[in-house]
Amino acid sequence: MGLNKLFKSGIALPKSNAEELEKSLNEGKAFFADYNEKRLELAFSTFSPDMKKALFEVIFFLHVNDPRFENIEYKGIKIERVSGIVRESFYQASANLYSPGTLHGVAGIDKLPATFREEFYEYTKNEFGVIPGKEMVSEFPPIVSISSLGSIGTISHKPQKSDLDLQILYELQPFKFQTEKWTEDRLKASFSKEINLGIHRLCVQQNLDPKSLSDNPKLHKELRQQSVLKAAKTYPYLYQILFQNKDFAKLLASPQGRQLKMNIILEMIQLITQSEKQSQADVLKEKERLLKNRILAIQDYIQTKFPKEEVYLFSCDCESFRQGHHGTTLESKEASGSAYELILNYDVLMPGIQFASTIPTHFIISKNFNNSSQFYARLINFIRFRCLPLYHHDDDYLVDMGATPSLKMSYMLTHIGAAYWESFKAASGNLPKALLNLLRIEVLYNSRYQLTFIELIKAPEMIDKLIPDNYREIAKEQEGDSKRIYGMSVLQVLELEQELLNLPRAIQLDLRIDPWWLKYKILKIFYSDPEVLLESSERRRISRNIDLCFALHIKLSDALAMFHPKTHRDRFLMAFLKKGFPPNSPQRLTIERFFMGEVQTINHFEQDLKNLFSNCLDRIHRIIALHDIPDGSSQSEFEIWYQYYQQNFEYAPNEIPKNILAHLKVPRASIRIRYEKSRRRGSWIFSGHAGKDQSSGMPGGARSDIPEVVDLTYDMSFLKGLTYCILNGYYGLLRAGSLQETKTKIDIDLGSADLGNVVDNLWCVVNSDTASLLMDRIVGFFPYRKSHYMDGVNFGKEVTEILFFMNLFKFGRISMLFRDNLQRWYVEEFDHSRIAIDAQKYYDNHQALLDHKDLHDSIQLFLMRYFINMGSKNLKTSFWYNYMSSGHAPGLDSRGREKSLSWQFQDKVLKIHGEKNYTNPKEADAQSELTKN
Fold this sequence. Notes:
Blueprint: H1 5-9, H2 15-44, H3 49-63, E1 72-82, E2 85-95, H4 117-128, E3 143-148, E4 164-170, H5 184-205, H6 217-234, H7 236-243, H8 249-253, H9 257-279, H10 281-305, E5 311-317, H11 318-323, H12 342-349, E6 359-360, H13 361-364, H14 367-370, H15 373-384, E7 398-399, H16 409-413, H17 417-428, H18 431-444, H19 453-458, H20 461-464, H21 471-480, H22 490-501, H23 515-526, H24 536-553, H25 568-580, H26 586-596, H27 599-625, H28 635-648, E8 670-675, E9 684-689, E10 709-716, H29 718-727, E11 733-734, E12 742-743, E13 745-749, H30 758-763, H31 768-781, H32 791-794, E14 799-806, E15 814-820, E16 825-830, H33 833-837, H34 839-844, H35 846-850, H36 853-865, E17 876-881, H37 895-913, H38 921-932
Parallel strand pairs: 4-5, 6-7, 8-13, 14-17
Antiparallel strand pairs: 1-2, 3-4, 8-9, 9-10, 11-12, 14-15, 15-16
Helix pairs in contact: 3-10, 5-6, 5-9, 6-7, 17-18, 17-28, 18-23, 18-24, 18-27, 22-25, 24-27
């Protein structure tokens, strides 16, 4: 009968379906080309030269797997942190980027986007002597998509700041199936294998040993009959044709033959697909292993050659991507695992840039097919098996990234883990960004607003239909209420979008295709709707902070000193600043204080965000409580998210906080420390002086957004404030690596300050030189160390280093600066009045101080409070004295004497407390349960 000829002759769709698909194909290709070009233009206008080179080399080596690159030599850059200071050094490096027998090749390499095509070819020719072409691929190009993740190509793409995260999707079999080789004999053999597999499954279900069937012919016959019946039910037409010699030729030629032909083709597709998976499972597994290893090798090479560019390659097979399987938090901190799944596809990943000109099929397939997983999958199979001539011209450039149906409440209800994933991210990183993401999740729990970004990009008019009818009246009320800060109104948001869209074509910016703008826009619309949130003060507070968080994410400070925009992003920043943060407005003053590092404003903002975050989490809980549907998140992953959030979201009272604004964490020319007794408890003020020619140590040179002098912190103890400056990067090297390299100068200005008594004023003060020495001691004792997010889950909190201080601005005071395995820093201090009363005695006789019972009672209380075992091999300790009994002024005696006294103190503490074991019973029980699970 020539069954495989049915594929070549194709299928005839109903006229309405055929017209719909042809229209969606033509319109979808045009839309995608325009969308991708605009995003590429924005990305390349922001890329640094090295970022472009890194991208070009990623594409090149994903495509070319040549023996000449078995030992490629290049100049590597090593970035090290030495005592907390970042230093660069060059070295001669080599890499092996040749992997024999590994699949290689990038689909669409011959039709790269015009935005960078010629520049790419010129670079590869000059750098490697090769212009990559289609002829260089393996049996077929496995890399079907190289797309951007995150901020790349959006208005939040920050020069020299945004990582180049690339999603590398691969197929281990060609997109187009070679149907010519599937003769009747091969189909029959595959059908027979299906029957045999059915017998094996029946044996497993009945706890039978398949080998025993040879001794029981009757049982074997019964099982075979059952398997045949099931296979015949799954493939009724193929069974009749292949095993009953049924001839459907006349029926196929009749007017009623169209549906029959489609049914036979569908059965063949299913059988062939199943057969390929089963017969090549081991081969495909090995091919995947080799391919993923090669992708990792390319990433390692790129990261050592261009370490400043932060390039990461996230590889995934297309089938896993379509199912929303993106790794697990158990293996990577960046993998959301079961939290988002398809929500991540539709709302974050799919609106990315395609760097290799392949077209995601969801762009060219109409909404009717996209919204039905069954119809979508069937259509894709027809395309892959070349049954639809309509797609023949483009099928070399198509990538199946899955359908993009509208989200349903039932799916959201089984993915409440997304809220805790954002809680995990808020506790471990960027709080403003995490709040925006959590608010977005709350939006998706409202059935009216369940529109994904990929839907909105394709149909931007959908989002405007959600705007409350009275939004103009609301805007007027907000503008007339000078006592409350609302942030931008929905009217202003729409005006800004239209202003940039109405610019001349050469400088036009269409925000409607920008995922980050869509997130901002839909949040502003949602939280202006009284039906969503009845409490007006909370809506106002959320709306105001959405503006501030968004401004920080897009780094609006770049626009504060900008006069002439050069790029699309520049034009947006200037327009957004003018519209949402006009001069002298409360919002403008707030954002300026953010970028200059005004401590009080930043601290208030952080507390406000944490409160909003907790409130949003509570509202999501209330929504979930109305439905009795179990969460689909992995329990193990949920434990990580929840436990990390519980441990890290709020600062402990004695914890040293980290500034949530990363742009302020740059070394200052000097830090001035002054004491004001008139202030409330914690009367130390630390001010940072930038210096006229201060360089941040990052590309771009001086930081114009940091003023000459700014308060860094206040109302902290001296030790806590000192460490705060180290932890947040204010103390370090300026112009690192140059001949003008200098270190942050420490200047203590006590003036006529009175610490309370003559003893403290005489023996306990720290001068500028001693403070610098003390800073270096802290930096050296607490080396830079990466914390692993799983440490708190696997091991609980554990103090790893303690630095003890004696007599810091108070005689008889013992201070403990300590750090745990989660890289959180703390300070505890104990004062001892009985020691202070007899200060002269203990000043002259430090051995008597070492033996004092009050001192060791405090140390024991400290050890018990934090479950610290002084005898632990994992614990590092050291001691610092702030007075010397030699009669010299504080800090001017030899370091050797201080070191000797420190060793004596350490020996005494270990002798008294080293054998005592303090264990946290709650953590011990929790770890026991975790081990069992």
